[in-house]
Amino acid sequence: MESEVGPLRSVLLHRPGAELKRLTPRNNDQLLFDSIPWVDRAQEEHDAFAEVLRGRGVEVLLLPELLRSALDDPRAHAAGVHAAVDDRRLGAELADVLRSHLSSVDSVALAEVLMAGMTFEELPAAEGASLVRKMNHPRDFAVDPLPNLLFTRDSSAWIADRVAISSLTMPARRRETAVLDLVYAYHPRFRQAARAYGAHSAPIEGGDVMLLAPGVVAIGVGERTSAAGAESLARSVFADNLAHTVLAVPIEQSRATMHLDTVCTMVNTDAVVMYPLARDSLVAYTLYTGDDGALRVDGPEPFLTAAAKAMDIDRLRVIDTGLDPVTAEREQWDDGNNTLAVAPGVVVGYERNVETNERLEAAGIEVLRIAGSELGSGRGGPRCMSCPVVRDSLR
Ligand SMILES: NC(=[NH2+])NCCC[C@H](N)C(=O)O
């Protein structure tokens, strides 16, 4: 994986399931959804998204299936039980009850608990009284659900032939790291894959990681990825020779712009679609290794200038969506700028972003439209909902 736009061969998606049924008006904000999705329809929309990709010759890997087969390995099963049980929340006694219960269930049931969580009333019965059981509401979570697994972009990201497992910022998403770790460590397809970023210390989310060109990685720094995360990922990709230049791009710390890919995605080898209101303000720091082997940081300078230099092209084109500010803001919120390229000049986008899509087409970009009325309620578009695993090289 050396670019954002090379012909897509294999992609990791998550078909949403019971974890979405955990969302209620009381917990949706904390669980990072803006409304309560209609789950059956969300699944239909997701199936249609997967079909569009398959129709373009892309192999679609589904996270729930990968997780179940990874858990068939007894070591993965034990690690899965460990990842599900939070001693601090349950206390030692109840934690032991849950651990021994989960150790006895099959990989399908354990995968379900890891994804959809478990409430106190769903916990197995045990002898004796438990203050923790008594003082928690029966429908409180003993194991938190992970509704944002849908956004596979964020929890892991491939850079060249290596995978970086994210260290997610929001408490509602932190346990996703453990799920992806299990899949990459134990699924037969991935267990040989080398890791690009071992240190799980500083926050990095894949929605902020953009492969602008072979050897050039942009990393958004904002609500999710910290400067420390960007710097350690940069050091790590330099040490592994996966890139020669990293651009650290500050983005506004707000829900609308939680990741770099909410304001900008690549639609061709030399072109991006970008939220017009970000176009003139986006800057970048350029990171590279000096002749003495030490890290250098230049800038900041305008993002488009820094990117073109690093990519060694005359100009990084911005598709001029020319939208009025209100339409631009509405379509940005609905992930109009969050496209997934399946090949240079061919992208998947939400159909609802009528004007952005029209402008993209006027600029010669083919837009494969998908429905996202329910999928979009978690604030993520086609790029957020996909983790490319293999793309053909551009040369
Ligand atoms: N790459 C992205 N833009 N991902 C969107 C993630 C949305 C998710 N609900 C969150 O708040 O984390």
UniProtKB/TrEMBL annotation:
Pathway(s) annotated for this protein in UniProt: Amino-acid degradation; L-arginine degradation via ADI pathway; carbamoyl phosphate from L-arginine: step 1/2
Entry-linked InterPro entries: Arg_deiminase (IPR003876)
Active-site residue list: C384
EC category: hydrolase
GO BP terms, alphabetized: L-arginine deiminase pathway
EC id: 3.5.3.6
Annotated GO MF terms: arginine deiminase activity
Taxonomic superkingdom: Bacteria
Catalysed conversion reaction: L-arginine + H2O = L-citrulline + NH4(+)
Key words of the record: Arginine metabolism, Cytoplasm, Hydrolase
Gene Ontology terms: cellular component: cytoplasm
Compartmental location: Cytoplasm
Residues annotated as signal peptide: none
Keyword field contains Chaperone: no
Record has Hydrolase as a keyword: yes
Main localization of the protein described in the UniProt heading: cytoplasm
Pfam families, per database record: ADI
Family the entry assigns: Belongs to the arginine deiminase family.
Cited NCBIfam families: PRK01388.1 (NF002381)
Name under which the protein is recorded: Arginine deiminase
Organism: Amycolatopsis albispora
